[in-house]
Design brief:
- By secondary structure, chain A is mainly α.
- Chain A has one domain (about 1-250).
- Helix content of chain A is about 75%, strand content about 0%.
- In chain A, about 45% of the residues are buried.
- By secondary structure, chain B is α/β, with parallel strands linked by helices.
- Chain B has 2 domains: about 5-225, Rossmann fold (3-Layer(aba) Sandwich); about 225-299, no CATH class.
- In chain B, about 35% of the residues lie in helices and about 30% in strands.
- Chain B has helices spanning about 40-50, 70-75, 95-100, 110-120, 135-150, 165-185, 195-200, 220-225, 265-275, 290-299, and strands at about 5-15, 15-25, 30-35, 55-60, 65, 80, 155-160, 185-190, 205-210, 210-220, 230-235, 240, 245-250, 255-260, 280-285.
- Chain B has a 6-stranded mixed beta sheet, with helices on both faces. Chain B has a 5-stranded antiparallel beta sheet with strand order 12-13-14-11-15, with helices on one face.
- In chain B, strand 9 and strand 10 form a beta hairpin.
- Classes of the chains: A mainly alpha (about 250), B alpha/beta (about 300).
- The interface of A and B includes residues 7, 10, 11, 22 and 86 of A.
Chain lengths: ~250, ~300
């Protein structure tokens, strides 16, 4: 049965990848254009007037945060739209009637989200090379934080997709929760530059730890300990997986 | 071993009881018809068996496999064609079927032969590379049948397979269903509104009303329960007689029918007509006897 579930998992992933690559103008292109605009406006136009942060030009400082922002949005929106879409079209029943286990279903959907997140991240990285030069301090750390962040937001997207009953429900969380958390997550500024109150408040924002750890992978500069950043990400992933597992029982029996 | 058995299965939606202590058994390699009006519980029953809904109580076994304890094994035996279209209209016809095979652990290479067979059998081969949104309603329904059969299930659920389908396609669908039963030894569990079709096609029939099974038996024994039989007749002139045993009447379509009680010999019909100086040219049993039984039980 384990072998069977792995085969099913591969189908789910292949289907997800086929889906988001088929509609690449909606899934891949927009974040690249968005982030390019950030690079031009914030990095080039405004950044040239801003002093170095922690020894980095503002453009260099921005790159990891903007990469992370693109990955977060891509992984979240891939799963929420795919899962809700299959609920809306009732094609989710194709999976429900088949011997697909809950775990396989979760991993299948989130893997699609992770892969889209990583693809978007890789493409934004390539675009960023047109604007600035930098060396990556630890490629392993960059990859690890990318995967864990993408998986956390893919899981969050899945939870949103399970709950969502109408199209409005899949845009509320990204608009009112995800976007503010990302903007306040340290993409555009260093935590050190904030007043104490905002630093204290930022510590409740998981995206702060993700971006801090990710940026450390590029430049070896961080506000929190790497172990703290990693622990927050792992705990968040476990908690979201547990919640998704509990909720998915509402839709499946296997 | 039964192809399907339900023991005291219940399902509630809030205060509404959709399925009320259902007991049902379906023999292997039969065509089983579940009949009932809209909202009687037909689709809910199929959903509880196939996994798109959770039952509240009871036990369901598919070829001896408990759907709660041996969920994955039992699901391998099942194929489902739902009432409403439930696939992504943006995907290609063949992809929809291949993905479904993948959900049973089968690769596209493994099901290549089966895929081509089904596409040809269901007249979808020419449309295989087209997105499903380009298909007509009948084609979409056939696509769902092909998808349900890709993993060679032993028990096929068809929820209103011929609803809204034209006459030609309906005939083709039934022919194909009979072929599945004969050649693939498949058990077919179907719901339909067309009682005449059910009477012609089904070996076993159950009638459901308000979530309760009113009757479940072989078609023959069910029809035997009728106290009378109806024949359509052709006569040289109109005839109208009402007696306890024999009743001649005109239908709204202007056809003459005669209802004969089970205890009366058919020769008495001819004798009675002869007495009234009416000649009977032709007499044939009416095919929709089931409809009469259904209406009687539903009253």
């Amino acid at each position: 049965m384990k072998n069977l579930q792995f085969k099913i998992y591969k189908t789910l992933v292949k289907k997800e990848v086929t889906r988001f690559t088929r509609i690449w103008t909606q899934t891949i292109l927009p974040p690249i254009i968005n982030q390019s605009l950030y690079f031009i406006i914030f990095g080039q136009f405004i950044g040239s007037q801003i002093a170095n942060i922690q020894g980095l030009s503002y453009m260099q400082f921005l790159v990891p945060g903007l990469l992370m922002m693109g990955m977060i949005n891509a992984s979240y929106s891939n799963v929420v739209s795919s899962f809700f879409g299959s609920k809306f079209q009732r094609s989710i029943e194709e999976i429900l009637v088949a011997p697909v286990s809950k775990t396989t279903m979760i991993f299948g959907f989130i893997s699609g989200g992770i892969l889209r997140g990583l693809l978007v991240g890789a493409l934004i990285y390539l675009v960023s090379l047109f604007f600035t030069q930098f060396q990556v301090y630890s490629i392993m750390q960059v990859i690890l934080f990318s995967i864990l962040t993408a998986s956390a937001f893919a899981l969050a997207g899945l939870i949103n997709g399970i709950y969502a009953k109408k199209f409005d429900d899949i845009s509320i969380i990204p608009t009112f929760v995800l976007t503010p958390l990302t903007y306040f997550g340290g993409v555009f500024y260093a935590l050190e530059s904030l007043p104490e109150f905002w630093v204290a408040l930022s510590k409740f924002n998981p995206i702060v730890y993700m971006i801090d750890g990710f940026r450390a992978g590029f430049y070896n500069i961080n506000y929190f300990q790497n172990s703290t950043n990693l622990t927050v990400l792992i705990v968040l992933n476990i908690a979201l997986f547990a919640l998704a597992y509990k909720l998915i029982q509402k839709v499946t029996r296997a | 071993m039964y192809a399907l058995s339900l023991e005291k299965v219940s399902k509630h939606y809030g205060r509404l009881t959709a399925l009320d202590n259902i007991d049902l058994k379906v023999k292997p390699n039969t065509i089983f018809g579940l009949l009932g009006s809209n909202g009687a519980g037909k689709t809910t029953m199929i959903s509880c068996i196939t996994g798109t809904e959770h039952k509240d109580d009871g036990k369901i076994k598919v070829f001896g496999k408990d759907i709660d304890k041996q969920t994955q094994e039992s699901k391998f035996q099942i194929g489902v064609v739902p009432q409403e279209f439930n696939f992504s209209i943006f995907e290609k016809v063949k992809d929809i079927i291949i993905w479904q095979a993948g959900y049973y652990g089968k690769s596209s290479n493994e099901v290549k032969e089966r895929l081509n067979f089904l596409l040809h059998e269901l007249n979808l081969y020419d449309k295989r590379n087209q997105p499903a949104r380009n298909l007509s309603g009948g084609m979409k329904r056939r696509l769902m049948i092909a998808r349900a059969l890709i993993h060679k299930p032993k028990l096929l659920f068809l929820d209103e397979p011929t609803a809204g389908v034209d006459v030609d396609l309906r005939a083709q669908t039934w022919k194909f269903i009979e072929k599945l039963k004969k050649e693939e030894k498949m058990t077919i569990f179907l719901t339909t509104h067309y009682l005449e079709e059910a009477e012609q096609m089904c070996d076993e029939i159950a009638i459901i009303k308000s979530g309760k099974i009113l009757k479940s038996a072989s078609k023959k024994s069910l029809l035997n329960e009728l106290e009378s039989e109806v024949f359509t007749v052709k006569t040289n002139k109109p005839i109208k007689i009402e007696s306890k045993a024999i009743k001649f009447y005109q239908t709204t379509k202007g056809q003459t029918e005669v209802e004969v009680s089970k205890s009366t010999k058919l020769s008495a019909v001819f004798e009675l007509a002869h007495k009234k100086q009416v000649e009977i040219y032709d007499i044939r049993p009416k095919t929709n006897q089931l409809e009469r039984l259904y209406l009687q039980l539903n009253q």
